[in-house]
Amino acid sequence: MPDNITFASKLTPARVVIIGVVAIVAILGLAALVLFANLPDANAFNGRVERLFVENDALTGQAEIKLLEILAGSGTAFSETLASYRFIIFVLMLFATALLIATLVCMVSLVVLARRMAEVEKTGIQVNALTVHRDQRIVQINDMEFKLTEAALETLSVLAEARIDDDILSGVEIESVISGKPASDCDEASGAVRIKRLRDHLGNQMMSELLIKNIARKGYVLAVAPEAIKMV
């Protein structure tokens, strides 16, 4: 079992593609050899016609000679047709090889992308710096800059200040802090709407979902280290 695990760990995407390409080429190459080996000989018909000429010296009449000439012409046409079929089969095998290799590369790429997405969802977005510019209504996340509305900026500011204090805010608390009303006069839905609008303004759905985490039965929190947050 450890040997199998070690072998599986060494199968990088590049190595999988190389092994897959070699396997595809080998299988299709073997299939091509078997197919071409079982195709009839292009000169088989001409050989039979030649035997007719050699073994039937009595066929000296004008009609017999004409018939033999027609048969000879048919043999030549058959060999040319078979040669064209061989070329067509060869081209189709090349297309099949290219399509299978492209499919393999796409499948490996999708698997790699899915793994990376799973890692991102598991670990969250690595935010090294989050700067909120209140006067410009701009938030900078790493090297990305987002222009927010006043309401979205207020929501983000509340979440950022709560994260600095290592707090988790419910929708009711978010609405209460922003509106200035007592928590008893606010509801969870209003805070959830503010969070949704903030996520919409951040644009990228996956990024916003991972940046603003919803902890069940507790509330909302920014997935950012408190020391990475700066309020300007």
Features:
single chain; 232 residues; alpha+beta; Arc Repressor Mutant, subunit A; 2 domains; four-stranded mixed beta sheet; two-stranded antiparallel sheet; 6 strands; rod-shaped; disordered N terminus
Summed up:
This protein has 232 residues and is α+β, with helices and mostly antiparallel strands. Helices cover 66% and strands 10% of the residues.
Please characterize this protein's 3D structure.
The chain is α+β, with helices and mostly antiparallel strands and 232 residues long. The protein has 2 domains: 2-122; 130-231, Arc Repressor Mutant, subunit A (Orthogonal Bundle), CATH 1.10.10. Helices cover 66% and strands 10% of the residues. It has 8 helices and 6 strands; from the N terminus they run ααααβββααααβββ. The protein has helices spanning 2-9, 13-38, 44-55, 62-123, 150-164, 171-179, 188-202, 205-211; strands spanning 130-133, 138-141, 144-147, 212-215, 219-222, 229-231. A 4-stranded mixed sheet has the order 3-2-1-6, covered by helices on one side. A hairpin with a 2-residue loop joins β2 and β3 (144-147). α2 runs antiparallel to α4, α6 (171-179) crosses α7 and α7 (188-202) crosses α8 (205-211). It is rod-shaped. The two termini are 56 Å apart. The model is unreliable at 1-9 (pLDDT under 50).
Strand content: 5-15%
Low-confidence stretches: 1-9
What overall form do the CA principal axes indicate? rod-shaped
Domains (count): 2
Biggest sheet features? 4 strands, mixed
Strand order of the largest sheet: 3-2-1-6
| Contiguous helical run count | 8
Rounded to the nearest angstrom, the radius of gyration is: 37 Å
Order of helices and strands: HHHHEEEHHHHEEE
| First-last Cα distance | 56 Å
Work out the number of β strands.
Answer: 6
Average pLDDT: 78
The proportion of residues forming helix, as a percent range, comes to: 55-70%
Computed structural class: alpha+beta
